[in-house]
Design brief:
Layout lengths: L5 E4 L7 E6 L4 E6 L12 E6 L5 E7 L2 E9 L3 E3 L10 E6 L11 E5 L2 E5 L6 E5 L5 E7 L2 E6 L4 E6 L14
Parallel strand pairs: 4-9, 7-10, 8-12
Antiparallel strand pairs: 1-8, 2-3, 3-6, 4-5, 5-6, 10-11, 11-14, 12-13, 13-14
Length: 173
């Protein structure tokens, strides 16, 4: 099952996403530093992408647009030397699922295969949702791109400018 996604082109300055690691749980969290428009239609809550291997990525959504990402349970991560996010991306927002949320609905769960690649410095992560396929990258924030495929479904995420995982002091090893 895919997740409907619609590209909305935007002009002007992009917000920034601040990435943070939780060293105890290995959770990577990113939050966009711009609030969503009040009263805008669309889902407000969370979209849970669940891989068959137990992996789990959470998208925080406000008024239908992505405002945060958490990689909670990681699938196997493959290191790809020279991995870079797409340079050719439109600036905009990606609306999910595209209709006003019902008062009792605060979360949507989507079963999908998840795969993650990273570069050698682990500053760029490519999260693929479902099979590899052609997709349009959309820069929704400095540090976050969302991929939408030809069927207008979520195809992936690019997490960029991710800080290094915190080093564990030697006396705690």
């Amino acid at each position: 099952m895919g997740l409907a996604a619609r590209i909305v082109e935007k002009k002007g300055r992009l917000p920034h996403i601040a990435w943070r690691w939780d060293a105890e749980t290995d959770i990577l969290t990113g939050a966009v530093k711009r609030p969503a428009a009040k009263g805008a239609p669309g889902l407000t809550g969370s979209v849970e992408l669940e891989g068959g291997d137990g992996s789990f990525v959470l998208l925080d959504v406000a008024a239908g647009t992505i405002r945060g990402v958490e990689v909670v349970v990681w699938p196997d991560v493959r290191t790809v030397p020279g991995l870079d996010a797409p340079v050719e991306a439109v600036n905009g927002e990606v609306e999910l699922p595209g209709r006003r949320s019902q008062p009792s609905v605060a979360a949507v769960e989507v079963d999908a295969s998840l795969a993650i690649d990273t570069n050698t410095s682990e500053s760029v992560f490519h999260v693929r949702v479902g099979p590899t396929r052609p997709a349009q990258p959309v820069r929704v924030a400095d540090g976050l791109l969302v991929e939408v495929d030809e069927q207008q479904e979520l195809a992936g995420l690019w997490l960029t400018e991710v800080p290094p995982f915190p080093a564990t002091p030697e006396d705690e090893l």
